[in-house]
Amino acid sequence: MYSKFVKMIVIINVVFAGIILVLGFIPSDNWMADATYIICGGAQLIAALLIPLRMRNVPKEGADLAVAEVFVQSNWVIIALGMAGACTYLAEFVAPNNPVIAYVAFCAGLATLLVGIFSMYKSVKMTGVDLMI
Amino acid sequence: MSEMVKDVTLDNYQWVDKHGDYVLTPIPKNETKRLWAITFVYMGTVADVAQVMGGGVLGTGFGVMDTFIVSLIGSAILAVIGGLLAYISGVTRCTSYINFRPAFGRMGSNIFSTLASAVPNMGWFAILTWQFGTFIHALFPNVAFCNVLPATIWGGCLMALTAYFGIKGLEFFSYLAVPYFILLAIFGVMIAVDEAGSFSGIFDLQPAEPATYGEGITYVVGMMMAMCLVTADIGRYGKTRWSGAIAWTLAMVLQALILAGAAMLMLATGSADVPGALLMSGVGFGAFLMVVLGQWSTNDNNLYYSSLSVGMYARMKRKNLVLVLGAGGIFVAALIAGIWGSAPEPFEFFLGLMGTALPGVGGVVIADFFIFRAYKGEKVDDRYQFQPGDELPEFNWVGWVSALISIIVGGFIIKSGIAAVNTLVLGLVLYAVLAIICDKAKINMYVGKHTLTETGE
């Protein structure tokens, strides 16, 4: 049950990271905007994809709590990246020529942050995991 | 009594954690943390505005390539010193101050831990709190709540809050601050490249008044030396004896990157005030977040280390000690804010003093654990394995003499080389030589005796 929840959250995170990453490859007159989207989206993607990889090493017995511990640790990084992105994408120095791109990136960053917080809450509810491992 | 005993699973754990957070006792195995968590807490201490400003200061004296070299050498020195001290805590699972006991004696460790940790870390807490107030005021000059004095006070209260919750509080803020600071270092480089016109262009930028490598390395080492000497306070939570050392080394890699990124930004924009430069470059709310997260994730560590240090002899719960020390630190920060406003002199003076004087203490502890104990034939796993009922010396005069001579000679008399390294090597060599001579000549190094109780007192 909890593993399915984690997989769903990973897929959502991969989608958000993918959106930000794709925005970085849309040609813009501000190279710093492109670079920021690629760096943030790439980092978010790696952090999300590390979760299933790290889950492979979790032993079967007491699996939910062990999975939650792995998930919570990686999720902190995703939350931090989402927060950093949401605070940066609308900043002047990374403003692309098309403001819609910045707003889409901002929404993806904010959504990453909110999904991260929600999944932390659910993890504690479902497994009783300690948020600071 | 039963309320004071933690839920420990170690069969042979004979200690009672009276003051909380294992101030005087080893960490039980079931309370240890993964490498990941320890790395983030260490990186949280590095990810702060003082580091970024320090990088900016390096940019006033060095070109980009030289900044890289100076940052790498300085961080490598810190990695070795802090790594060795963290390794000791991996073996003992005790705080820095307990680990000071064999080298300085029980009373000696109380005094030296106060000098090497409580005083500098409380000083750092006050200075970073004051700095927080000045940054917030610079970012929001027209908001009354964000004037230097009020911002100093509310900022200090927030920082004390996470220190109150101990390692979990530190971990929480580090998780948020570290990824963000890595991004900011990258932003700094991006802005610098943009200002210089090309990536190769930033390598052509040169400072107006070049500094020497020795000055630069001393500056880098001085910035983190107070923290470096107490790496054991976090390293004791490591699952293996290498955890703390590896985590600290990774944190030093991050430090080198942050310093280099900030120096590039300074060279490109001409302003050593990196948060200001980021704000001018249009980072906006990100600059504010950098100040808040950066100062917070570092300064709660300072207060935490101080509370562990003073907790060695203060008959008080560690959490209450955080409140008392936090109130004191905020008061000092408010005084600084009232007297100096936003002048950098106290900050620079403090950095210089710490960098030159303190490494001798670390050198003595390293010499006792790695050289003297090896000479005595003790296996690494058997060193510093304290148990209730053990007898400890009140003073180890060899440790005192070695530390004091190294601080005076290395820090203030020898004028060549890197002062911090001079002090450390002098402390290490003096202690190793004196201790071995005393042992061979059957001269007693220890004065007085104290029997450890089950509470570690």
Overview of this protein structure:
The complex is a heterodimer of chains A (133) and B (457). Chain A has 133 residues and is mainly alpha-helical. Chain A is built from 4 helices and no strands. In chain A, helix 1 (2-24) packs parallel to helix 3, helix 1 packs antiparallel against helix 4 (99-127) and helix 2 packs antiparallel against helix 3 (63-88). The two termini of chain A are 22 Å apart. Chain B is an all-alpha fold. Chain B is 70% helix and 2% strand. Chain B is built from 19 helices and 4 strands. Classes of the chains: A mainly alpha (133), B mainly alpha (457). Chains A and B meet through helix 2 and helix 3 of A and helix 1, helix 8 and helix 14 of B.
Summarize the structure.
Chain A is mainly α and 133 residues long.
**Biggest sheet record of chain B:** 2 strands, antiparallel
Low-confidence stretches of chain B: 1-9
The number of helical elements of chain A comes to 4
Q: Please give the share of residues in helix of chain A.
A: over 70%
Keywords for this structure?
heterodimer, A: about 130 residues, 4 helices, elongated, B: about 450 residues, mainly alpha, two-stranded antiparallel sheet, 19 helices, disordered N terminus
